[in-house]
Amino acid sequence: xxxxxxxxxxxxxxxxxxxxxxxxxxxxxxxxxxxxxxxxxxxxxxxxxxxxxxxxxxxxxxxxxxxxxxxxxxxxxxxxxxxxxxxxxxxxxxxxxxxxxxxxxxxxxxxxxxxxxxxxxxxxxxxxxxxxxxxxxxxxxxxxxxxxxxxxxxxxxxxxxxxxxxxxxxxxxxxxxxxxxxxxxxxxxxxxxxxxxxxxxxxxxxxxxxxxxxxxxxxxxxxxxxxxxxxxxxxxxxxxxxxxxxxxxxxxxxxxxxxxxxxxxxxxxxxxxxxxxxxxxxxxxxxxxxxxxxxxxxxxxxxxxxxxxxxxxxxxxxxxxxxxxxxxxxxxxxxxxxxxxxxxxxxxxxxxxxxxxxxxxxxxxxxxxxxxxxxxxxxxxxxxxxxxxxxxxxxxxxxxxxxxxxxxxxxxxxxxxxxxxxxxxxxxxxxxxxxxxxxxxxxxxxxxxxxxxxxxxxxxxxxxxxxxxxxxxxxxxxxxxxxxxxxxxxxxxxxxxxxxxxxxxxxxxxxxxxxxxxxxxxxxxxxxxxxxxxxxxxxxxxxxxxxxxxxxxxxxxx
Length: 558
Description:
Layout: H1 2-20, E1 24-27, E2 39-43, E3 46-50, E4 56-57, E5 59-65, E6 72-78, E7 95-103, E8 106-113, E9 118-124, E10 135-136, E11 143-150, E12 155-162, E13 176-183, E14 188-198, E15 211-218, E16 221-228, E17 236-242, E18 250-251, E19 258-259, E20 272-281, E21 287-294, E22 307-316, E23 319-322, E24 332-335, E25 353-357, E26 368-369, E27 377-380, E28 384-388, E29 401-406, E30 411-419, E31 428-436, E32 439-448, E33 451-460, E34 465-473, E35 480-488, E36 491-497, E37 504-511, H2 517-520, E38 527-533, E39 542-552
Antiparallel strand pairs: 1-24, 2-3, 3-5, 4-26, 5-6, 7-8, 8-9, 9-10, 11-12, 12-13, 13-14, 15-16, 16-17, 17-18, 17-19, 20-21, 21-22, 22-23, 25-39, 27-28, 28-39, 29-38, 30-35, 30-39, 31-32, 31-38, 32-33, 33-34, 35-36, 36-37
C-alpha cells in the first residue's frame, strides 16, 4: 500500500508540473525599429528597459515587462522642456546611451547630452515618472555612464568611456574605461578618478571605441563588460573581471563574448552589428543579455535603425557566454517561463499592425523634434490631430510641426487621412519618411498655379532645399485626402486616395538607400511623420490628421 500510495503521489506531482509548465518564445528584436543602446534593470518581478533617443523629444522611453517579451511604454525620462531640450542640435546628436539602475527605492538614469550638458543623472521613485531635473556631472568626462551599486558595502560607482591616457591616443578610436565612486544620496562623484581599461581587451591589437560599460558582481567577482569595435559591423561585447571593483581587471581569454562580424555576409536574414549588451536574470532565474543589433536588407544598408535584441547566456568557468549554442543571433528563443501580456500595450516584436487615434491623447511612443510646443497642436474626436503650420521646416535645427512614429519593419505601410487646404504655395502638409535633416521624402498637399496639388519631394542632402519629384492635381472640392507610404527593403512607394479604397500610385520604387544610416550617417532610424509647414513664412493655417495606421510584414517573422 505504501508503494502504491507513493506511485500515485509521484504521478500526481508529475502531472501537475506538466500541466503548470508554460513556454514563452522570445522574438527578436524584442523592440523593433529605432530603439538603440538598451539598458535594463530588474526590480522584483518587473523589468524596465530604456533606449537612446538622440534629439527626439520626449527623450528616453521607459518600457515595462514581466516576461522580457511583452513591453509596454509607461513613460519617458525627459518629458518636460524644463528638464532639457535639444534646440539647435542635429537629430543624430542629443542623448547618447542612457543606463538605468535601482537601489533602495530609487530609480537612477545616467546619460550623456553629447553637445551641451555632458553627463548627468536623474532620479524617480516611480519609473513611469515624473523624473527629476538633470543633475550635471562635470567631472565625468566622456560618454556612456552607468552606475553600479555594491549592496555589500552600500557604495555606488559610476563607470564610463573616456579619453586616452593623458589625452594622447595611440591610434584613432583609442579610448579608456574609467571610474569614480559616486555619492548616490547627494548625486555627485567623490574621491579620485581611476582608469580601469586602456584601449580594450588587448591594446597591442589597437581595439577601438571601448564603450557602454557596466559592472556586475557574481561568484565573488566584479565583472566589467563593455562594447568594443564601434557600433557598426565590427561591433562586439567583451568582458573582464577582478576581485576588487577598482581592478585590476583581467580579460576573458575567449573574448569577445558576443559579435556577428565574422559570419558569412550572404547568410539569410542576417543580424549584424551586435553589441552594447547588459545582463539581466529572467523569470526562470537564468541569465539573458539585452543588446543592440541591426537587420540590413542588403550589405550594411538598413533604415530601421539599431534595435533591441535578446539572447540567452551560459556561465562557463564563471564567465558568461552570450548566445552559446549558435554563432548567429536567432530570431526566436524558447523559454520555460510564463508569458505575461499587458493590457493596452502596443506590439513591439514580430509582424504587427495598429491604429493610433488622436481623440484624447498622444501615444507616448510618438516623437517631436528637439522639444514639444503644446500650443502648436490639438486633439479632438472629430478632427483628430490638428497641427498649426509653423514657419520652421524639418531642415532647420528647430521645432517644426512634426509628430512621428518609428519605422519598425523593413516592409511596412503607414497611412493617414489629411484634411488641409493650402492658401499659398509655401503652405504644405502631409506625410513623410524622415531619416535626418538632409535625408527624407515628403508627400504633401499644397497649391501650384492657384490649384490644389499633391507633391512628392526629396530632400537635397547638400543644401537646405527640397527637389520636386512629381506632382498630381486634386479636386478643389476635396478637402480630405488619404496618404500612404510603404517601405519594401531598399524601396519606398507613395500613394494617395480620395475615397475609401481607390489608392493611386504617385511614385513607386523610390530609392530607399537614400534614407539608410549608411548613406546619411549618424545613429538614428527612420521616422514616419505627420508634418505641416509654411516654409519660412508666417501662417494662420492648420492641417488635421484623423489617424495614423501602421503595419509591418517582414519575411523573417513569417
